[in-house]
Task: inverse folding
């Protein structure tokens, strides 16, 4: 019978009201109910009686309780799904929620990155996050060796993951891979700089991490050299264009919050980059373009732009570093000329001092040596001057510094003290730290053009030399030289 | 069933709500029942509508209904009988009369024998021949197997003894089987005829 009943019922269930019929029927019924409402007496009765009814009251409470319960469960679920990950975002190693941040939030975002390029970016960001966490812990004095090792491991893992993704890109698109590599290595350089800056404060705590980051950075650079003839210059140019546009946009947006000197710094670096890009384009259009040189120029421009962007976007970076740490200033031809002239001036001062002291010297061997040295100085100075006139700035720099070095040697030999006489080369310092005057100068040079402004600048520099008189030049000069060595050279 | 004459405190809001809930819960089943009894969709919808308006009027008059389902079935059943009366005057009464004197034999009264009988019938085929059954049998079979009411509920609903209900179900099932067999035979004959035709052709 059961079967019969089931079959019959199942079959009969094909008979049912259509949704429209049902809605229609309901409509008819409801309007009937409205036309024939319950008598007033029943409603009044209810209002009068209901509050006294104990059972009614109980029913009300039990209903709201279930609503409360559902609401509470809903709130808890919502909190677990949305709230916990949000709170976890702010956690640090050692916090209860830290594993959720690293193993849930970040992994989820990892799986959401669709392209390997995005994955590289994301892994780089995670790497930065780990380092920021370590720095935060260190600043609170909570960075134990255990956490340090963990962070170092995580940094390595993220770096490896990023490089893996780069390899993945390389399989399909070698050019994109090269671009990604550049971005990755500039990010690593930024992190290295951050850690090194931090290292000055608490050298032992972040040492391990710094080591790992430097290793990874070196590794990335090593990989970079493998792909020498890619990316293509066009792609590089396009990328530089994109990144500089972004940098300018960022600069506009931070203009209100950044300090004036920071803005001037950034503007100066951006104009450096543009000048380099211009030089690269010029070189490329030349008859016999130096392609690796152009590529290097563009690559450095790209990296510097990326560093500037990270300076503007990453508060950690901005707090620990000044722009100069990330992207050293690049002197224009004019500025470099000034440096050479200054060097020559200092040399002349020393030379005069030595010549003056020469008469009082008695040891003939020493005199002979000094005279020989003076000859070299003269030779180098002349070489520098002629190089300057021919516009060969690099040989001028080399000759002038050579002359200065010899002059210093001689000064030492004869016991000449230059302190009292030689002025501090203010222009150099300004170029390095970029105060407002430098920016004005920059404008000046831009206005007056390239070659003609040389004389004016020289005059200015000389005026300043007269104005300011102070201590050791030599150190200053050497510092500038090293900075220039670090900064990418214009060819 | 209906708690007649109960004039205790009534919550008007909840009366409305309960009534509408009864509509949501049972309108489909009631429609199905009516549709199978009347074999007419449009009429079935009207009958269901009338059922609910009647019940609402009953509620308005101050009566409280504890359990809507049997009450709704009762009203629906009455309306369907009215509908039959309209269609063919007298035939139902005759049938009922005839039925009334028959007490039924032992077999027909036993639940187990009914089950045995039902087991021999294909429910899907039964659905198609159900229409051809006289309404007194169709009514109980639908109530029993489609609406899944118990014999006691059915007896209350159609105001007959449980015995009568059992007998009717039993006989109804027997009729169903006969009809199904007859149909199968007819089809078989047709098939043979066709074959014969095909052969002669």
Result:
């Amino acid at each position: 019978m059961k079967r019969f009943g089931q079959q019959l019922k199942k079959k009969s269930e094909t008979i049912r009201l259509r949704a429209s019929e049902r809605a229609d029927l309901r409509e008819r019924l409801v309007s009937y109910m409205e036309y024939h409402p319950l008598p007033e007496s029943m409603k009044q009765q209810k209002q009068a009686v209901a509050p006294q009814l104990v059972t009614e009251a109980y029913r009300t409470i039990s209903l709201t309780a279930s609503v409360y319960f559902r609401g509470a469960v809903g709130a808890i679920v919502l909190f677990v799904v949305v709230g916990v990950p949000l709170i976890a975002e702010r956690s640090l190693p050692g916090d209860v929620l830290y594993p959720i941040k690293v193993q849930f939030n970040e992994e989820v975002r990892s799986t959401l990155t669709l392209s390997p390029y995005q994955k590289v970016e994301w892994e780089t960001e995670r790497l930065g996050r780990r380092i920021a966490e370590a720095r935060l812990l260190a600043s609170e004095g909570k960075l134990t060796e255990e956490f340090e090792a963990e962070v170092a491991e995580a940094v390595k893992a993220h770096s490896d993951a990023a490089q893996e993704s780069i390899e993945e890109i390389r399989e399909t698109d070698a050019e994109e891979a090269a671009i990604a590599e550049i971005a990755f290595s500039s990010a690593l350089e930024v992190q290295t700089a951050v850690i090194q800056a931090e290292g000055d404060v608490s050298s032992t705590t972040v040492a391990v991490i710094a080591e790992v980051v430097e290793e990874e950075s070196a590794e990335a650079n090593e990989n970079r050299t493998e792909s020498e003839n890619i990316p293509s210059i066009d792609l590089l140019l396009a990328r530089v264009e994109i990144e500089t546009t972004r940098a300018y946009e960022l600069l506009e947006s931070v203009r209100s919050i950044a300090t004036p000197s920071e803005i001037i710094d950034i503007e100066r670096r951006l104009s450096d980059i543009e000048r380099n890009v211009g030089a690269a384009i010029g070189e490329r259009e030349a008859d016999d373009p130096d392609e690796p040189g152009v590529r290097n120029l563009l690559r450095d421009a790209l990296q510097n732009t990326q560093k500037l962007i990270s300076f503007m976007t990453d508060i950690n970076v901005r707090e620990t570093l000044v722009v100069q740490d990330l992207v050293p200033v690049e002197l224009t031809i004019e500025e470099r000329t000034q440096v050479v002239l200054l060097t020559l001036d200092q040399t002349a001062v020393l030379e005069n001092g030595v010549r003056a002291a020469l008469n009082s010297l008695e040891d003939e061997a020493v005199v002979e040596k000094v005279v020989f040295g003076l000859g070299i100085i003269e030779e180098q100075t002349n070489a520098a001057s002629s190089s300057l006139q021919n516009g060969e700035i690099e040989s001028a720099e080399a000759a002038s510094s050579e002359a200065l070095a010899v002059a210093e040697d001689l000064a030492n030999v004869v016991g000449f003290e230059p302190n009292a006489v030689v002025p501090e080369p203010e222009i150099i310092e300004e170029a390095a730290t970029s105060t407002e005057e430098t920016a004005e100068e920059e404008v000046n040079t831009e206005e007056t053009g390239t070659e003609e402004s040389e004389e004016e600048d020289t005059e200015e520099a000389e005026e300043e030399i007269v104005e300011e008189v102070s201590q050791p030049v030599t150190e200053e000069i050497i510092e500038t030289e090293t900075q220039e060595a670090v900064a990418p050279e214009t060819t | 069933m209906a708690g007649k004459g109960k004039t205790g405190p009534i919550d008007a809001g909840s009366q409305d709500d309960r009534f509408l809930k009864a509509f949501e819960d049972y309108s489909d089943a009631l429609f199905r029942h009516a549709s199978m009894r009347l074999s007419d969709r449009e009429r079935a919808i009207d009958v269901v509508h009338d059922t609910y308006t009647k019940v609402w009027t009953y509620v308005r008059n101050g009566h409280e209904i504890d359990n809507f389902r049997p009450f709704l079935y009762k009203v629906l059943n009455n309306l369907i009988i009215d509908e039959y009366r309209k269609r063919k005057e007298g035939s139902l009464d005759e049938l009922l009369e005839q039925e009334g004197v028959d007490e039924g034999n032992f077999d027909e009264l036993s639940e187990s024998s009914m089950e045995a009988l039902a087991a021999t019938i294909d429910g899907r085929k039964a659905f198609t021949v159900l229409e051809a059954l006289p309404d007194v049998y169709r009514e109980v079979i639908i109530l029993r197997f489609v609406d899944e009411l118990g014999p006691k509920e059915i007896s209350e609903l159609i105001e007959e003894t449980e015995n009568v209900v059992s007998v009717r179900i039993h006989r109804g099932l027997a009729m169903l089987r006969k009809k199904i067999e007859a149909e199968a035979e007819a089809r078989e004959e047709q098939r043979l005829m066709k074959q014969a035709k095909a052969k002669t052709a």
